[in-house]
Design brief:
The complex is a heterodimer of chains A (309) and B (363). Chain A is mainly α and 309 residues long. Chain A has helices at residues 12-24, 26-46, 64-70, 85-117, 121-132, 139-150, 155-162, 176-201, 205-212, 217-246, 249-255, 262-269, 277-306; strands at 49-51, 57-61, 71-72, 82-83. Chain B has 363 residues and is α+β, with helices and mostly antiparallel strands. The chains are: A mainly alpha (309), B alpha+beta (363). Chains A and B meet through helix 9 and helix 10 of A and strand 6, helix 2 and helix 4 of B.
Chain lengths: 309, 363
């Protein structure tokens, strides 16, 4: 009478499996250690060191990097601390831009993924291929092309002017909108693919059952389809939001100096002689903290959908 | 239930085609109110397609479907006052049992409180109240089945459609559910349209059965009628076990046909419509309507020899060969009375066809 499903059990067989599982995971753990844990630890340590003026660090403990992020102590550092808005504003703009890019990707990506997943099996591969085609070209080149496309005298403005839609060229380049379009274009497939995977697994009999129980198309989508494919939607949102938050190509090339984002800020700190390594490391750690918070919120959301209340 | 009342579902010359493929040939069918009606046929016969056409999941290529007199084939599924119990239940995995059952009620415009109240009553009816807060995955197959039933019945549909709802259950549970379903249908008075490929299930539960094959209606009637008076070879063969003998009609007198079976055997049989002297036809005789004896009976018996006896619990199935003719299967009940009619393999015996048991089929 008890419900079905596989439950972990104890006993000698279970232990053997548990041991084998741990052993098989060793390579993965090694990769994670070398490529994730060590670099993050390095950043964490660097963020608490003192800056060397031509880049690099002096091995001396200091909170100066974090202090500089949040407080203004005047040009010579002897004035009483005032709250520094510059970097917080950049962070806020980054979150806002990344959030907007995520929403935009979701609005376009969900119908796209749903469309592909509901095509006959043979044609789905073609649609997916089309979605991933841009990824065969380097992101830098794609972003530069985007800059060319959006320029005041670029093909888009030329075409719109020639067609008489516009009287004057649209000034898109070096605006938040350009950055937005760049981020959206860069990461849209990361939204489409996980949602596609979820919708493809979705059992459409649920939709039939909903329609049978008097649900309209909209109610079916809202009450049945979306909740069931929610894990895919959340995965897509994370995959777009997180890299958008740290992006530096799109804001650099499309946004110009006024529309600085975290990624560019961090990148600057490690470039050439003008950099400030501890400050860049500190900004990275703050960014990482933000990302972890986002991930924690989304995993609790995921768990809520899977487990009964 | 009166015959003069409007039929619950009236299918008029409905056809379904997918490109060149015809799933349902022009079919007409009337399903009465309060009836337990079964669509029976092998897989691919179009029975599920027909059910889905009534539910609204499949377009009707041609013809019309009426529900209590109003035409519905143009309505989307959510506008039809019918509900479906799906083959794999299709319970919403992210909702609790209670939410599943109240979904239809909420979609009908009831407040959440009212919907939950009524859903709770439905769960009581199917004895699952204590599982109200669980998710479908935490229930056994039989329990999920009952939830699906409760969910489909909660919005008080005028017709309930059941698409092979018992096929995923094991035999014992299936038998119990057959009776439970039948009771539920009687209690609620809702018209049930039940799809199955299991002829025994159909015979057990139905008020009437529509036997389908290759997108066509083969026979429509009450279980006993379909079983005892099959209209053609397909129905005779599909429902229950039968002996199908190729016969030549040698004479017709007083509405009795004399049938000649290979090996020089003669069987008398009621002449059905369309039978004429000189034609060949098939004779269907159920194994349990054949009697074995050591000496010939007065009405006339056929000589045969026993090939094998197979013990099947309630019965003993005897395979035998008519002298110079085809094989026959005879079923004798496993009882003291039946024991006298069982003979060892190799024995020469006489086979008697019970009066009225043979049925002549011309197609």
């Amino acid at each position: 009478m008890a419900g079905g499903g596989v439950h972990a059990s104890s006993g000698p067989v279970a232990e053997t499996y548990a041991r084998a599982r741990h052993q098989l995971l060793i390579p993965a753990w090694a990769v994670l250690l070398i490529f994730v844990a060590v670099p993050v630890a390095m950043m964490l340590i660097y963020s608490f060191l003192t800056k060397e003026f031509r880049g690099g660090v002096i091995w001396e403990f200091s909170l100066a990097a974090y202090d500089q992020f949040f407080f203004d102590r005047g040009l010579f550092g002897d004035e009483p601390p005032k709250f520094e808005w510059t970097y917080v504003t950049i962070f806020w703009r980054s979150i806002w831009q990344a959030g907007l890019a995520t929403i935009l990707s979701l609005l376009i990506g969900f119908p796209t993924a749903y469309f592909i997943a509901t095509r006959p099996e043979k044609t789905r591969a073609i649609w997916l291929f089309l979605v991933t085609i841009p990824y065969w070209v380097n992101l830098l080149i794609r972003t530069v092309s985007m800059k060319f496309l959006l320029r005041d005298q670029g093909p888009m403005n030329d075409a719109l002017l020639a067609l008489g839609v516009l009287e004057e060229p649209l000034r898109i380049i070096n605006t938040n909108l350009a950055v937005q379009l760049g981020l959206f274009y860069s990461y849209l497939p990361f939204m489409v693919l996980p949602i596609y995977a979820a919708v493809e697994r979705y059992n459409f009999t649920y939709s039939e059952a909903a329609a049978d129980l008097y649900a309209s198309k909209w109610a079916t989508l809202r009450r049945v389809v979306l909740p069931v494919v929610k894990p895919g939607v959340i995965a897509g949102c994370i995959l777009v939001f997180v890299p958008s938050l740290g992006a530096f190509l799109a804001p650099d090339l499309l946004g110009g100096a006024k529309n600085f984002m975290i990624g560019s800020l961090i990148e600057e700190q490690f470039k050439g002689n003008a950099g400030n390594w501890p400050f860049g490391a500190a900004a990275s750690m703050i960014l990482l903290t933000l990302v972890i918070i986002v991930l924690l919120i989304s995993t609790t959301q995921q768990r809520k959908t899977r487990e009964p209340g | 239930m009166t015959d003069s009342s409007t039929p619950a579902v009236d299918i008029e010359n409905a056809a379904k085609r997918y490109g060149d493929f015809t799933a349902i040939k022009s079919m007409s069918l009337s399903i009465r109110d309060n009836e337990f009606f079964t669509l029976l046929g092998p897989s691919g016969c179009g029975k599920t397609t027909l059910l889905r056409m009534i539910a609204g999941f499949e377009d009707v290529t041609e013809g019309a479907i009426f529900l209590f007199g109003s035409e519905i084939e143009q309505l989307p599924p959510n506008k039809r006052p019918v509900n479906t119990v799906f083959q794999n239940y299709a319970l919403f995995p992210h909702m609790t049992i209670l939410e599943n059952v109240s979904f239809g009620l909420e979609m009908q415009g009831n407040s959440r409180v009212d919907a939950h109240k009524r859903a709770g009553e439905m769960l009581e009816l199917v004895q699952l109240s204590e599982f109200a807060q669980r998710k479908p995955a935490q229930l056994s197959g039989g329990q999920q089945q009952r939830v699906a039933l409760a969910r489909a019945l909660a919005p008080s549909p005028r017709v309930l459609l059941l698409d092979e709802p018992l096929s995923a259950l094991d035999l014992k549970l299936r038998k119990a559910m057959q009776i439970e379903l039948k009771h539920l249908q009687r209690e609620t008075g809702i018209t049930f349209i039940f799809v199955t490929h299991d002829q025994e299930e159909a015979l057990t539960m139905s008020d009437r059965i529509a036997v389908m094959s290759a997108g066509e209606l083969q026979q429509l009637g009450e279980p006993r009628d379909v079983y005892e008076r099959p209209r053609n070879r397909f129905v005779a063969d599909f429902i229950g076990d039968t002996n199908l003998l190729e016969v030549a009609i040698t004479d017709i007198a007083d509405n009795l046909a004399s049938c000649h079976v290979q090996g020089g055997h003669q069987i008398q049989c009621g002449a059905s419509e369309g039978v004429s002297k000189g034609m060949t036809a098939h004779l269907s005789v159920r194994p349990e309507r054949l009697l074995l004896s050591a000496a010939p009976a007065e009405e006339g018996s056929l000589r045969a020899s026993v090939k094998e006896n197979i013990f099947v619990g309630t019965d003993i199935t005897t395979l035998l060969t008519l002298d110079g003719g085809p094989d026959l299967t005879v079923r004798t009940s496993n009882s003291a009375r039946g024991a006298a009619r069982v003979f060892d393999p190799g024995a020469d015996v006489f086979v008697t066809v019970e009066a009225g048991a043979a049925r002549l089929l011309i197609n």
